[in-house]
Design goal:
Blueprint (H helix, E strand, L loop, with lengths): L1 H36 L2 H44 L1 H6 L4 E4 L17 E5 L4 E5 L15
Length: 144
């Protein structure tokens, strides 16, 4: 009976020792994980990874913003070009001025026969003398 009792006590002691060792082993693993969090090399690697990620996102955002700004600039330049008086002249229109270029002439009533006028074209300018003029009604072409 004593042998059995000694065997039970030995078995119980061994089980308690294994449980205590397992508990201490778990505690050691927890402490090692916490210590690994404070390891400088690992922390620097984590920071480096985050920096690379943020840098990529920042570069992408800057590229998208640059492309958007370039497109807006192109759009504005195109709209400005269509409104430019030079673009109107390039389509074949002309601007007629009085002789000293102080006033734009809009109707044939603004000049008399023999007056000098200046005509601005897309490329160059003409000095002309009015030989004849025709008054027109609205909506028809005038001949000067």
């Amino acid at each position: 009976m004593r042998g059995r009792h000694a065997s039970d006590l030995t078995h119980t002691a061994a089980r308690l020792m294994r449980a205590a060792l397992a508990g201490r082993d778990r505690r050691l693993q927890v402490l090692q994980r916490r210590l690994a969090q404070f390891e400088l090399g690992r922390r620097l690697a984590d920071i480096r990874t985050r920096l690379v990620s943020v840098d990529g996102r920042l570069n992408g955002a800057a590229r998208r913003r640059h492309n958007r700004a370039t497109a807006q600039l192109g759009n504005c330049a195109g709209r400005l070009d269509t409104l430019s008086p030079l673009a109107v002249l390039a389509r074949g229109y002309a601007v007629v001025w009085n002789a000293d270029r102080t006033r734009v002439l809009r109707t044939s009533d603004d000049v008399a026969r023999g007056d000098d006028v200046r005509v601005t074209l897309a490329k160059g300018e003409l000095t002309c003398e009015v030989r004849d003029k025709t008054a027109t009604t609205e909506g028809t072409d005038s001949k000067s």
